[in-house]
Amino acid sequence: MNSRMLEAAGVSPGWLAVAAVGVAVVAYFLGCFNGAVVVSRYILRDDIREHGSGNAGLTNFYRVFGGPLTAVVILSDVLKAVAAVLFAMFIAGSISPELVTLAKYWGGAFCILGHMFPCTFQFRGGKGVLSGGAIAIMIGIGGGAYQSWWVPLVVWGGFIILAVATKYVSLGSCWAGFSFPIVSGLVYRDSLIILLAVIMGGLLLWKHRGNMVRIVKGTESKFVLHKGSCSKAAPVEGGTDVTRAEGASPAKKEAGSAPKAESEGEKMDRQ
Description:
Layout: H1 4-9, H2 13-31, H3 35-42, H4 58-64, H5 69-95, H6 100-116, H7 129-140, H8 150-166, H9 169-188, H10 191-207, H11 209-217, H12 242-245, H13 264-270
C-alpha cells in the first residue's frame, strides 16, 4: 500500500518499522489504562462492567455511579489519548515532519485498540468515544505538514448536534465512527491514513452495534442528568441496571421483581 506521506519522508524502511512498533506498543498500553474500570474497581470497589450496559466507558459510569469521580474518568480517557498522539508526534517529528500527521493516526489507532481491548482487564474495555474524540481534536492541532481542522469539526460537530437534539449519546457516537474515515479520506487522500481511519471508525461502530439495535427498536436509554453520589451500584438484574440509566434509584425497584432478560442489544454490548 502506497502512502504519499511515507514517500515524501524518504525514510529507510528498517528505521521506520522500529519507530512504528515502538509507538504502537506505547500507545496500546496507554490505551489499556481504562479510567472507568480503575475508578470503579480500585476506588469504589465495584466493577462498572457488571452494571448498566456492561460497557467500561464514560456514559455507563455516569449513569451507574454519577458523582465527581466521573471527572476522573473523563480526564483519564482524554489524557491517555493525548499522550499517545503526542508521543507518536514526537517520534515522527524526530524522523521527518512529513510523518507527523500519519503518526497521529497510527498512535491514535493503537490507543483505541488498547482502550477497547485492554490486556490488563481481560480485553473487556470501553467503546472508545471519548478517547477517539480527543484523538480527532489532536489531528486538528499540534502541527504537522498536513494539519487540518476539518476532521475534528465534522466529527465533533455532528456528534454534538445529534447527541443534544436526540439525547442519544450513542447516535452521536455512531456519527463519529461513520464520518471519521470519510472526512479523513477527503482531507488527506493518503492510503494509510484512510486505512487507519477505517479501522478506528469501524471498531467504534462495531462496539455500538447493540446501541444501533436498541435505537431502531426504540429501547435505547436517553442521556439524563442526575445527582449521583458515586456509591456502589445495585446488583445487575438480568445483565442490565435499567433504573440508573434513567436516573432513578435502584432502591425504588419493587422487591421480588423477576429478573429482566437481556435483550439482543445488551448481549452485543457485553461481547
